[in-house]
Design brief:
Length: 57
Amino acid sequence: MDETNRPPGESRVETTEEKSARLKAARLQAERDKDARIDRANRKAAARRKILGPGKG
């Protein structure tokens, strides 16, 4: 049965390959998000140090 002939409410079974690809994509996205958070925190810290000057934090 293909996707168009499936009765309402019947969910599609995910294959192992599809699940692996989905999880891999989710891991990569989480890693990119983490790197973006770290980059933003580093930029904020650098700006804070620049504004406060030496010896202030």
